[in-house]
Amino acid sequence: MVVSPASMDANATVDTLRTQSGLSLSESWWKFLCRIQVPAKVKLFHNGIPTNSNLAKRGVLVDSLCLICRRRSESTMHSYWCCPALKVIRAGCPFMRGIKVNDNFDFIDFMLLCRDKLAKADLELLCLLLWRLWHRRNCSVHGSTSLPYTDIIPWSESFLSDFRNANSGGIPSAGVSKMAAPS
């Protein structure tokens, strides 16, 4: 199933996926987070990240425009996927073709849609990419040196490979934590 950016039914489509699975959004989200095999520090995905748009909604006096492109409101989806500056990232992710979203798409719904549509390895790579993009955005905002966009995909692939190799042996690694859904 493809959700087009112009679709007015994007949320209904994700709601349908949730209903078919028999899980609430919260249950689906926690189940997803518990099962994904990425470093714990990457499992920070939710709509609470301090984008300018989220800060403005909470009453913080900030310009809600994206700090990178200065064209649109910096929503979570804009920061992670839809910003025009991320074109090279989107082009480098052939596994994402067919998954279309816009700036107003809910991030959790996006991740659940990707969970249902992508192979496990591609989903894990996507999580690393999004985490690294947020890190890059923070470096840019705070005046630190940041990785060029063209290097983010190779860096993420290498990081994920190293993580998998470090955690493939019979000895549990301190880098992998087991998460449990809140009771």
Structural class: mainly alpha
In this structure, how is the largest beta sheet organized? none
Sketch the topology as an H/E string, one letter per element: HHHHHHHH
Strand content: under 5%
Rounded mean pLDDT score: 79
Q: Determine the number of helices (DSSP H or I, runs of at least 4 residues).
A: 8
User: Which regions have little confidence, pLDDT < 50, spanning 5+ residues?
Assistant: 1-13
The portion of residues assigned to helices is 40-55%
Principal-axis shape: globular
Oligomer: single chain
Based on the model shown, name its key terms.
183 residues, 50% helix, disordered N terminus, Reverse transcriptase zinc-binding domain-containing protein
Give structural notes.
InterPro entries: RVT-Znf. Residues 26-86 form the Reverse transcriptase zinc-binding domain. This is Reverse transcriptase zinc-binding domain-containing protein. With 183 residues, this protein is mainly α. The protein has a domain at 18-46 and 75-164. The protein is 50% helix and 0% strand. The protein has eight helices and no strands. It has helices at 10-21, 25-35, 52-57, 76-82, 87-91, 107-117, 120-141, 149-166.
